[in-house]
Fold this protein.
Amino acid sequence: MESVIRFRVKPGAGRNRVLGIDELGIVHVEIKEPPQKGKANRELIRFLARLTGIDREKIRIKSGLTSRDKRIAFEGADRETVLSRIIG
């Protein structure tokens, strides 16, 4: 089972945090690392792993490696469970 969730990421923020989810189901997050040499993407994966309890190896960016708009896959968890852990 794999769940894919859309994210809009703002890199270079003061801290890592989830801002919420919009009416289109896109999760908005801020990441402290800058968008240089994959730093923000790596920090995003670490942050999502901490929030969800899913191993980093089971979270991958399916699309949007160089964009703020990303589709991220979570292996082994359904969408509702992942969203409830991210949003709280």
